[in-house]
């Protein structure tokens, strides 16, 4: 159903195709700030945590996520 070629996933089933011009790709260490920002916004939108708690979560998560993306122990996908 899916094919991985050069780090990009392509869906081979037409009913699951992405909109024209959008592609999925694996997250890289360069995406760390985007992912951390998304996580912070997600928790904020759910009403979980004060600004100080969310800022502390970002500060704690960023170094871990950067290393995990670099050593391939964290896998994420982003749409471009």
Task: Summarize the structure in words.
- The chain has one domain (2-79).
- The chain is 42% helix and 18% strand.
- It has helices at 32-45, 51-70, and strands at 2-5, 8-11, 24-26, 77-79.
- 4% of the residues are buried.
- The mean pLDDT is 86.
What distance lies between the first and last C-alpha atoms, to the nearest angstrom? 20 Å
Rg to the nearest angstrom?
15 Å
Largest sheet properties: 4 strands, antiparallel
Helix content: 40-55%
SS field, number of helical segments: 2
- On the 0 to 100 scale, the average pLDDT is 86
Helix-strand pattern = EEEHHE
Overall geometry comes to flat
- Total separate domains: 1
User: Helix- and strand-based class?
Assistant: alpha+beta
Approximately how much beta-strand content do the residues carry?
A: 15-25%
Flag low-confidence runs. Answer: none
- Please report the total strand number as a whole number: 4
Identify the strand order in the major beta sheet: 1-2-3-4
Features:
80 residues, alpha+beta, four-stranded antiparallel β-sheet, 2 helices, 4 strands
Brief sketch in words of this structure:
This protein has 80 residues and is an alpha+beta fold. It has two helices and four strands.
Topology:
Layout: E1 2-5, E2 8-11, E3 24-26, H1 32-45, H2 51-70, E4 77-79
Antiparallel strand pairs: 1-2, 2-3, 3-4
């Amino acid at each position: 159903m899916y094919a991985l070629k050069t780090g990009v996933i392509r869906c081979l089933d037409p009913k699951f195709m992405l909109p024209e011009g959008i592609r999925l790709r694996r997250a890289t260490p360069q995406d760390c700030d985007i992912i951390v920002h998304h996580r912070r916004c997600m928790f904020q939108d759910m009403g979980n945590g004060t600004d100080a708690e969310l800022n502390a979560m970002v500060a704690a998560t960023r170094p871990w996520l950067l290393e995990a993306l670099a050593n391939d122990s964290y896998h994420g996908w982003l749409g471009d």
